[in-house]
């Protein structure tokens, strides 16, 4: 039985969802500590530009202090204009692709994460790789880290991504589900020539057996300059605006098992395509070309205790229009609201976490399905026919 009250919340993982939760809890007057496995010396490769629509933007507005929220807004980019579809020679096939709502904004994932780290100070500890946890008889939960240290709180939240250690301990029977999709991505500094490829919210290029997705990340204001004015002391490197590109291939394509250099792989796959497309890939920032296998996973319920999940740890989704990030941010706001109710004595902590879990699974598994449907629309089979 979980007794009433919240006390300290331990958040495992300093990604977008975990940091949004931390800010929301601070605003609600709830003690929070965030533990991140990375040592904090660099940036994680988790993609580049994401689009956030109304629900994701509302979650940031509800969670962040005003100066950081203003920084998010001023550095974000437009997602207006037509969604185009070309063939590999840039012949227009459609000017009316589905896209985000009018109020959606483009954001750089790494810039957004740096903003979310702002104002949290020593509430965030880096180099803390979780080994396990245990709920204690005294009404607390203790996290154990690989460096031999421990942390104790009243609630532990696994916000540690698709390979979540918390999930593996909490729901060990659930594994990743291969989404039958492979992708390579990169970012290329913006030029007038490359901007013509993405005049609106996004561009899809349909080639034989592969799909190239393009999206522009034009900062409303260069992030380091904006941070110096609005949030002095926030660590924000200089950022150039860019075009983000993602090449998607189906599992039966020979390239799906290729382990070679990502840039050369993409150039091989688009051999004979329009020179503007090949030069876009050829001009990519070498530090920003990556390749990965893609997974998704729905989740069942688990026994309600003092440990819960958030974001990709609970509902790993295929990348589609900021779907995963926005869902994680909604998780954060809703979990904070339930914990605040328990903290005010309006309900028990057990009922708060149970209600949150029901809501989490309903929305999260729906988000997984949204990603699956997007895959069917965007990814051709090896014979070139869209599935």
From TrEMBL:
The keyword Flavoprotein appears for this protein: yes
Q: Which UniProt keywords apply?
A: FAD, Flavoprotein, Monooxygenase, Oxidoreductase
**Residues in FAD-binding domain copies:** 9-369
Q: What is this protein called?
A: FAD-dependent oxidoreductase
Q: Name one Pfam family in it.
A: FAD_binding_3
Signal peptide coordinates = none
What organism is this sequence from?
Nonomuraea insulae
Q: Does the keyword Nucleotidyltransferase apply?
A: no
């Amino acid at each position: 039985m979980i007794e009433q009250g919240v006390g300290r919340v331990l958040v495992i993982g300093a990604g977008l969802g975990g940091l949004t939760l931390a800010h929301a809890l601070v605003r609600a007057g709830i003690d929070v500590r965030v533990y991140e496995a990375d040592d904090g010396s660099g940036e994680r490769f988790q993609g580049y530009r994401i689009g956030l629509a109304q629900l994701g933007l509302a979650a940031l507005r509800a969670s962040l202090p005003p100066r950081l929220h203003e920084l998010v807004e001023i550095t974000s980019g437009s997602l207006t204009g037509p969604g185009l579809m070309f063939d590999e020679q840039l012949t227009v096939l459609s000017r009316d692709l589905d896209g985000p709502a009018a109020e959606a904004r483009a954001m750089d994932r790494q810039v957004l994460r740096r903003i979310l780290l702002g104002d949290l100070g020593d509430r965030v500890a880096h180099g803390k790789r979780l080994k396990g946890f245990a709920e204690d008889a005294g009404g607390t939960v203790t996290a154990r880290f690989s460096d031999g240290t421990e942390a104790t709180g009243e609630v532990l939240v696994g916000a540690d991504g698709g390979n979540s250690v918390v999930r593996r301990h909490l729901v060990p029977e659930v594994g990743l589900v291969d989404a039958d999709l492979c992708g390579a991505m990169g970012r290329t500094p913006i030029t007038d020539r490359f901007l013509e490829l993405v005049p609106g919210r996004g561009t899809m290029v349909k080639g034989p057996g592969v799909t190239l997705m393009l999206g522009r990340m034009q900062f409303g204001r260069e992030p380091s300059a904006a941070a110096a004015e609005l949030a002095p002391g926030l660590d924000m490197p200089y950022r150039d605006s860019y075009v983000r590109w993602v090449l998607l291939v189906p599992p039966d394509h020979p390239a799906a098992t290729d382990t070679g250099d990502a840039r050369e792989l993409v150039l091989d796959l688009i051999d004979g395509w329009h020179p503007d497309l090949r030069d876009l890939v050829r001009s990519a920032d070498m530090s920003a070309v990556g390749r990965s296998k893609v997974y998704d996973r729905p989740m069942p319920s688990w026994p309600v205790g003092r440990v819960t999940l958030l974001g990709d740890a609970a509902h790993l989704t295929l990348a589609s229009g900021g779907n995963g990030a926005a869902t994680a941010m909604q998780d954060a706001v809703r979990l904070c609201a339930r914990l605040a109710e328990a903290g005010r004595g309006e309900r028990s902590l057990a009922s708060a976490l149970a209600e949150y879990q029901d809501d989490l699974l309903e929305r999260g598994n729906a988000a997984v399905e949204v990603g699956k449907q997007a895959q069917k629309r965007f990814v051709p089979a090896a014979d070139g026919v869209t599935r």
